From TrEMBL:
<dbReference type="InterPro" id="IPR036909">
    <property type="entry name" value="Cyt_c-like_dom_sf"/>
</dbReference>
<dbReference type="InterPro" id="IPR004852">
    <property type="entry name" value="Di-haem_cyt_c_peroxidsae"/>
</dbReference>
<keyword id="KW-0560">Oxidoreductase</keyword>
<dbReference type="GO" id="GO:0046872">
    <property type="term" value="F:metal ion binding"/>
</dbReference>
<protein>
    <submittedName>
        <fullName>Cytochrome c peroxidase</fullName>
    </submittedName>
</protein>
<dbReference type="InterPro" id="IPR051395">
    <property type="entry name" value="Cytochrome_c_Peroxidase/MauG"/>
</dbReference>
<dbReference type="GO" id="GO:0030313">
    <property type="term" value="C:cell envelope"/>
</dbReference>
<dbReference type="GO" id="GO:0020037">
    <property type="term" value="F:heme binding"/>
</dbReference>
<keyword id="KW-0575">Peroxidase</keyword>
<dbReference type="GO" id="GO:0004130">
    <property type="term" value="F:cytochrome-c peroxidase activity"/>
</dbReference>
<keyword id="KW-0408">Iron</keyword>
<dbReference type="GO" id="GO:0009055">
    <property type="term" value="F:electron transfer activity"/>
</dbReference>
<feature type="domain" description="Cytochrome c">
    <location>
        <begin position="307"/>
        <end position="441"/>
    </location>
</feature>
<dbReference type="InterPro" id="IPR009056">
    <property type="entry name" value="Cyt_c-like_dom"/>
</dbReference>
<keyword id="KW-0479">Metal-binding</keyword>
<feature type="domain" description="Cytochrome c">
    <location>
        <begin position="460"/>
        <end position="600"/>
    </location>
</feature>
<keyword id="KW-0349">Heme</keyword>
Amino acid sequence: MNKGCFYYNTIMKLKHFTFLFLALCLLFSCKQNEVPKTTIKQNLLVDLTKLNSEIVHFQELVIKNASQKEILEQFKKSRLVYKKVEWAIEYFIPETARFMNGPALDEMELEENRSFEPHGFQVIEEMIYPEYKIADKENVVRELNIFQSNIKQLKSTFEVITISDDYVLDAIEQNVFRVISLGITGFDSPILQSSIPEAAESLISISEPLEIINSNNKTLENLKKLTAKASQYCTKNNNFNAFDRAFFITEYLNPISKKIKAFQKEENIKNVKKTSPLKPTVETLFDKDAFDVNGFVLSKEYNFTKEKAVLGEKLFYDKSLSKNNDRSCATCHHPEKAFTDGLKTNVSLTGSNLARNTPTLTYASLQNAQFWDMRQLDLEKQSVDVIQNKDEMHGSMENIHAKILVDNDYIKLFKKAFPKASKPEAWQIQNAIASYVRSLNSFDSRFDEYMRGNKNTLNNQEIEGMNLFMGKAKCATCHFTPLFNGTVPPTYSKTEHEVIGTPNEASGKALSPDKGRYLYNKMPQLVGAFKTPTVRNVAVTAPYMHNGVFKTLEEVVSFYNKGGGQGLGYELENQTLPFDKLNLNVKEEKALVAFMKTLTDKKYQ
C-alpha cells in the first residue's frame, strides 16, 4: 500500500472515531440534561408539601391576628390545594381523610359505644365563618396543628405503600363520582359554599397521574381538553345556588368518566377486585346496571340469583309465614305503592297502631342498615325480625322451615334456587326473601333516562328542581345522587342517619318522642336519629317520615325549608340537619317537588 492510501485510510478512521465519540458525548449530554420522569407517588408527596406550606401560612395569619378576609382567603386557598390531592387521600388513606375534610359531626363507633370529635376543614369553617372571633383563635390554631400532623401521617403512609396503575385509575374514577355526588352539592363546604371552584380543581388533577402512566395516549389528550372546559365552566359559573348541575353532569362529568374508562381499556389496565355496590365496569355513575346488589351481602353463598328471587317472591306473599296465617310481607308492603302501604302507620296484630311508618323496599338492598332505627345490617336479618315480631307477624322460623320441608312445590323451588343443598335449610328462607327484595331496583325513572342522554324526559321546572335538590335546598347532602338515600358515595360502604327534628303532628307543636337509634345504642348523639331513606319512588310512598307525619311532599319541603326541628323552635342540640332557613320561594318549592316526582320507576308511573 502506498503512503497516500495509508494516510487517507488513517484519516478516515480517525474521522469515523471522532464522529462516534461526538455522537456518544452528545447522547450522554442529552441524558444528563433530560428531566427524569417523576412517579405518581413523588408528585403526591410534593403536593402534600405544598398543602403543608399553605396550612403553615394559614396558621401564621391566625396567630398574628390577620383580618377575617385574609383568613378566609387563605382557608379557601388551602382547600383548593387539598382538592388537588383529595383523589389519592380519600382512596388510599380514608381514615385520615375523615379527619381532614369530613363532616363537622362526631365520628361514632357504635360497636364500642364511643365517639370521636371531628377535625379538619369543616370544623375550621364553622369557626371562621360567617364571623371570626379572636376568642376562637386558640381553637383554630389547635385544629391547624392537628391538620399538619395528619399531613405528616399521609406522607409517611404514601412513602411506604404501593400505588399501582389499576388503583390509580380506580381512585381517579371515584374522584369524578365524588365531584358529582358530594363536590357540587356543597357536602364538604356547607357554609362557605365554595364547592364550584373546588370541583374545578378536582377535575384538573385528573390528568397528571394519567400522563405519568402514558402521556402519548390520544384519549388522554381529549380528556385534558374536556377537563379544561369543565374547569372553565366552573370558573365562569361559580355561583353555588345558580350553578346548572344537570348541564354540568351530562355535558362534562359523564363524558369525563367515560374517557377515563376508555383510557383504562386502551392501556389494558385491569379493574380492581373489591366488594362494592358500585361495579368496577361502569362508565358513568348513572349506568342502568351501575350498582351490584351483592355489595352488601353477608358472603358469596348469599349472592343474588333470579331463581332465589322467584322463590323469595312466593314466600313474600305467603300468609303461612305468620302465626295466624293471616299476614304476609305484602300485607304492609304493597307492590303498587312501591312496597309501602299508604298508611301513616300500620296496625299491629292486636289492633293498635304500630310506632313507625312502613318504608319502601325498593332500593333497600343498596344500603347497609335496615329499619328506621338501623337495628339490622342486612336484609336477611330484617326479614326474620319482622316475621318473628309479635306485633307484626308473630311467626316462627322453625315452624316455617318445618312446613316447607313437607311442601313439594316449595322443595322444587328450593332445588332450583339452591341446587347444591340436599334439602331446604332455614337460612335459605331468609336469603330467598332478601333476594326478592334485591330484585326491586329498576333505575328506569325519567331522571335516569335524562342522565343517560335523553334530554326530552325532563322539563325546565324539573331541571330547576334537580339543581335545587343538589344545590340550594341541600337535599343531596343527605340523599346522595344517584341512589338518593344515605349510603355515602363513592365507596358506598356506609349508610348514614340524620337527626332532623321531625314533629309529632303536622301542626308542628311538639317534637316526636321516638328516640330512634338511641333505643339500641345509648349515645346522646343518636337521640332522634333515623336512617336516611331513598327519595326514589317518593311520589307513591306517602305519607312521609318515620312516623308518617306529613301527607304530602309539599309539607316535607316546607318542613326542611324552615330548618327542621330547630327551625320550628324545638330544643334539639344534636340536630344534624342545618337549622337555618333555606329561603326557598314558592316557585322553588314547587320545582323541588316536581323533580322528586321524576324519580318514580316506570312500573309505578
